[in-house]
Structure formats: structure tokens, C-alpha cells
Amino acid sequence: MFQWKRAGGYGKQNKSDCIEMTSFPYVDAHCHLSTDRIVSHGFGYSNSDSFNYVEYRDVLRCVMSNNQFDLMKVKKIRNNSMLIRSFGIHPWYSHLFTLKDDIGKLEHYREVLQWKDEQEFQKLVEALPPPLKLQQYIDDNFNANEFDVIGEIGLDKLFRLPDNGFYTSVDTGRLTRTQVKISHQVNVFHAMLQLSKQYQLPISVHDVKCHQVLFESVYDILGDQDAINICLHSYTGSVEMLGHFWFKKFNQNRVFLSFSGFINFSNSATAMPLLQSIPKESILTETDFPIDLQTEQELQLEIKKVYNGIREILQFESEDALRALVYNNTQRFLKRDVEQ
Ligand SMILES: [Zn+2]
């Protein structure tokens, strides 16, 4: 997930921006529902029914959960062939969870955060909720019948906590200099990988500047789990890392890259070497957007931007051909039957 601000200004849309009906839907293999500040500040779970999400049947969507707040929304969307639910803990929210059985709030945050300014740390702790026990959270909320993917999970070396304690989708506070220790992020990440292993579910992974540790974690826990597929979402590592590690050490048909407009197509030079180095069968597409905060038209424009970018770089003769490829890739990623 990237930190998203409602920008507006997509300009006027015309007829050609509308999705034409073909036999293969677009795929948004990694999107979200918003983490809501008002709900979040209750430190509890949302019982609110008042959120909007798009159920547009010409886009196959895989909706991530990041934390205890958006999870309640994800659970409310209908899990069907076009809307897939995913269960995860994003590294940006890993500090909200403890692996200990019995630990006080202050002691927990002292253990998992690293900070430069004691006063800033104290203020953050005041703003933060008591940590949830990770295993309890999984036991209470994860049900294999309700989720088809484990995500968003991963590691992030760069992010800093906002002064309200954790990111919300809109109106996040000022950034502090406080971070979550990588060792804690790794512990939470490992627990989620174990969940994937236990239920044989594919994973959707976030990686910022932790390429080697993240690879080793996935390889250690899922290396021999041939039925579990891996989606590296908005991948920002090197081509070499893909070639020497991901596609070499794993059976290559287990590894997928899902391309986003914001990260991979911020300019086409970013996506090009990746697209040219991986098998076509590994290509997925995504917005990484909170779908309840965007209009359907904005979502369509964003996903179309990704398809157009891929089509141009790989010189697909038609959009239909690319749509067929990505849709079939997604079906394989999700371990569903492949339409030929
Ligand atoms: Zn995401």
C-alpha cells in the first residue's frame, strides 16, 4: 500500500476511457479498503456499515487487509469469483500487534519501536492503542473459508510513524522520526507466512528496501511449499534479485509480479526492465488503491494505465490479448482453473 491522497484532477473522461466488454475482465490483484481515522480512534473494531465499495463485475479484485480496522470492512465485502478477500498485517501496522502473551502497553512499544526523541515516543504511546495479541487476532478473525490470499504482508525499512500512531487513508498526521524495528516486522511477517503455509494460501507481499531479508524469510518458510504462489506487489527491487533469487530458487511458475501505475509506471523506465526480464505468465496488474475512496471511473482509468503501459512495452497486438493473459495468470496465482 502506498500513502494515498485523494488527488482528483483526473481530467475529463471520454468514451474511450470506459471499459469495453470483452470475455476477459481487468484484474486488480492488489487493492484495499480504507483505514478510517474515526473508526481507528475507537481502538476497536468497526461495526459501521456505512462504507462504499465498488462491485463492478468487469474487474476481478483481490482486496487486501492491513490491520484490525480495515479487516472489518474486508469481511463485509462479498467473497465471490470477482471479489477476493485477503487477510494480512501490513508492516506499517505491525507495531499494533504483540507476539508476547502478557506485556504492558508501554513495555510493548518500548520493545518494538525505535525512536530518537523520548518525548515524541511518549506522545506516540499515548496516541496508540494497547497491542493486540497476534495469535489471538488470527484465531478470532481468520477463517480459511473467508479468505483466499494472505496479504498485505511484508517488510519496510523506510516508513516512519505519523504522530497519530499509524497511517490512515486520509488525513494522516505529521510524520515522526519513530520507526518499527525490522526484527519486530520480521516476527509478524513470519507468523503470516506460517499462516499461509498452514492453509496453503498464496501471499501478496510488500517490500521496501528489505529485499534480501524478505526473500530469505519467504524462502525459509515457503521454499518447499510448491502449492503456494507468491505475488511481489509493486516490486521495487532489482532485476538481478529477481533472476538470481526469486525466479531461480523458487519454481518460476510460483512467482508473480503485480504492476501498479503509481509505483511501476510512475515512468515507463521503471517497469520496462522488470517486464522484459520475467516470464509473461508472471504478470499481474493492480491499483493498490482503497477502492471505497475512489470512483469506479478513477479505478478504471488507473488500471487501464497499467494495461496500456504493459501493452506498449511488450508490444501486445491487442488489449484483449493482454487481458486474457493477465486474467489467466491471476487464476493460476489464485489456484483456480485456467481458462484457455
Ligand atoms: Zn497495498
Automatic annotation (TrEMBL):
Pfam families: TatD_DNase. InterPro entries: DNase_TatD-rel_CS (IPR018228), Metal_Hydrolase (IPR032466), Metallo-hydrolase/TatD-type (IPR053044), TatD-like (IPR001130). Keywords: Hydrolase. GO terms for molecular function: hydrolase activity, acting on ester bonds. This is Amidohydrolase-related domain-containing protein. It comes from Tetrapisispora phaffii (strain ATCC 24235 / CBS 4417 / NBRC 1672 / NRRL Y-8282 / UCD 70-5) (Yeast). The gene is TPHA0I00480.
